[in-house]
Amino acid sequence: MTYRDNSKVIQIGDRVIGGGNPILIQSMTNTRTEDVDATVAQILELEAAGCDIIRCTCPTDEAARAIGEIKKRIHIPLVADIHFDYKMAIAAIANGADKIRINPGNIGGKDRIKAVVDAARERNVPIRVGVNSGSLERELVAKYGGVTPEGLVESALDKTHMIEEFGYDRMVISIKSSNVMLAVKAHELLAKETDYPLHVGITEAGTVYSGSVKSAVGLGLILGQGIGDTIRVSLSGNPVEEIKAAKLILRALDLRKGGIDVVSCPTCGRTRIDLIGLANKVETLAQNYPLDIRLAVMGCAVNGPGEAREADLGVAGGDGEGLIIKKGEIIRKIPEDQLLDALKEELDNWGK
Predict the structure, then answer these.
(1) Which of 252, 283, 307 is the C-terminal boundary of a domain?
(2) E strand or H helix at 209, and its extent?
(3) Are residues 56 and 152 in the same domain?
(4) Fewer CB atoms inside 10 Å of the end CB: C or N, the chain?
(5) How far is CA 69 from CA 39, 97, 247, in A?
């Protein structure tokens, strides 16, 4: 049994996390929440990419009011992200937020935190308690001689205990750092101290390329230990790229099924077709099919046929041509310029 199997079950809108339920993928809009049309358009794009839960910043009354209108036009739970102004948390809850994200350390004293908790309890809205290494309390930095995993865990537990004292336990915890190994150690420590669902991510990971690599390493080490109930891959780029990366990470860890798993060779001097161009086109094509299969794009006659036979569908490149292999059997030899169309035809008719 892993941490994830034993974490508390929490409902967020119409989704359920914890208790061994599937790990859900989150992202955050980068539009102004007050711009309802732009925010809805981005959320719908994220939904199509596979986003399960979306978070929107809520810094103003106008943004809080927009939440109600946004929710009418989307199909996944919406989390309101709150910093500094506790009134925005209360307003977001009143306007239908499915969850709120707060750092109790930056919204004021206990009376303000209690007001937020009371509003959440009234509508049964879960609270995500978020702690970031960049905003760790000065006293904890001094106590531990810097920003440490132990300090992050103590900060998170202090805040959850405070909310528990107000008689509420519908919580999710997140402890984020841009330092991969610090984040890994912090999650290992936290998982020993609590059974609340954990939202996992490497915060401010970087650009699409470097951030995806850092996130894959960090999330792989954390999720591979059975820790974590929801994830976000934080990237400086189009949020859709976060969803793509998150899905690949979960598939690589055998934590999510569905979608075509495209594998391709790195190419070498034996390659006689534009394997790199074909592989990229196939990867883009595959995103349009809700099939749970493996598709191999291989470049030459050495390992290509064998690798392609192990996949459900594959192509093994030759000299300006390629073999289409389906379920271990060669079914066609196709000129290079027709390979993509041939694969599309097979996908269009898969299972028929």
Answers:
(1) 252
(2) helix 208-223
(3) yes
(4) C
(5) 11, 11, 29
Burial class (CB in 10 A: 0-12, 13-18, 19+), 111: exposed
Amino acid identity at 301: A
For residues 314 and 297, give the distance between their C-alpha atoms in angstroms, rounded to a whole number.
6
Give yes or no: residues 9 and 63 share one domain.
yes
Which residues have a Cβ under 8 Å from the Cβ of 304 and sit 6 or more positions away?
A: 265, 298, 316, 317, 323
Q: What is the largest CA-CA distance in the chain?
A: 73
Using one digit for the tens of pLDDT, what is the confidence trace for 283-292? 888 888 888 8
| CA 219 distance to own-chain centroid | 10
Q: What is the model's pTM?
A: 0.87
Helix axes 239-252, 36-49, angle to 10 degrees: 20
Residue pair 261/251 in contact by the 8 Å Cβ criterion: yes
Name the token pair of 96: 């239908």
Helices 36-49 and 61-71, axial angle in degrees (round to 10) = 50
Q: Where a domain ends, among 234, 252, 270?
A: 252
Tell whether 191 and 314 lie within a shared domain: no
**Which pLDDT does position 305 carry in this prediction?**
66
Q: Please count the structural domains in the chain.
A: 2
Residue 48 domain boundaries:
3-252
How does pLDDT run across 224-255, given as a tens digit for each residue? 999 999 999 999 989 999 999 999 999 999 89
Three-state DSSP class for 191? Answer: helix
Q: Roughly what angle, to the nearest 10 degrees, separates helices 86-94 and 61-71?
A: 30
CATH code of the domain covering residue 298: 3.30.413.10
For residues 51 and 82, state if they share a domain: yes
Mean pLDDT of all residues in 72-97: 94
Q: Are strands 321-326 and 329-335 parallel, antiparallel or unpaired?
A: antiparallel
Same domain, 131 and 212: yes
